[in-house]
Amino acid sequence: MEVFWTRGYEGTSADDLAHQLGVGPEDMHEVYGDKHGLFLRALERYRDAQARSLAPALLSEGLVLPRIRAIMLGYLQLAAEEAEPRGCLIANTAGEVLPGDPAVADCLAEVLSVVEDGFLQGLQHAVDQGELPEGLDLAGNAAMLTMLLQGLQVLVKLDPDPLRLTPAVDAALAGLNALSRGTVPLPAPR
């Protein structure tokens, strides 16, 4: 996963994978399968290690919205500390491999679904504990947060100062924060 994440699918050779896995190039295929199969397994590992951690982080005790902000800013901070920010394996893969690979597309869709569901669970938790009002379009806001996170992951690879994006995160979260304070009425249902 780390090799693909750092170098991309096309930039990763069978020799790179064999070296990382600690096997000879001639043994890699026999032991681990082909590069494409390993890539799909790497995407699944990313889903399990990265995406599945979102919901538990948002469902712990305390306010949800500050944790959403902290997660977003954590990605900015990580990118600021990396010599060459990697961004997100999912966003990177979408730009590099798609369209044209249905197996990868399915894997990416599943990962993004897990992320969106994590945000949805967190927002529902915020409603349940009175942090956000009833009647909020939770699905729409979960999709918005997923888009924000993926967009940040692309921008951090390009921006020499990723922390500069902190006000953009705050602007994107301003609507939810205003709803949590009761300073903005909910939009009328369509």
Give me the secondary-structure topology.
Blueprint: H1 2-7, H2 14-21, H3 25-32, H4 35-49, H5 54-59, H6 65-81, H7 89-97, H8 102-128, H9 138-158, H10 166-181
Helix pairs in contact: 4-8, 6-9, 6-10, 7-8, 8-9
Protein name: TetR/AcrR family transcriptional regulator
InterPro entries: Homeodomain-like_sf (IPR009057), Tet_transcr_reg_TetR-rel_C_sf (IPR036271), TetR_C (IPR011075)
Pfam family, one: TetR_C_13
Q: CATH H-level name of the largest domain... which superfamily?
A: Tetracycline Repressor, domain 2
Secondary-structure class: mainly alpha
Tell me the strand percentage band: under 5%
What is the molecular shape? elongated
For the largest beta-sheet, the strand count, sense and barrel status come to:
none
Number of strands: 0
Mean pLDDT across all amino acids = 92
Low-confidence stretches: none
Oligomer: single chain
The helix fraction, in percent, is: over 70%
Protein name: TetR/AcrR family transcriptional regulator
Keywords: Transcription, Transcription regulation
Domain Tetracyclin repressor-like C-terminal: 65-168
InterPro entries: Homeodomain-like_sf, Tet_transcr_reg_TetR-rel_C_sf, TetR_C
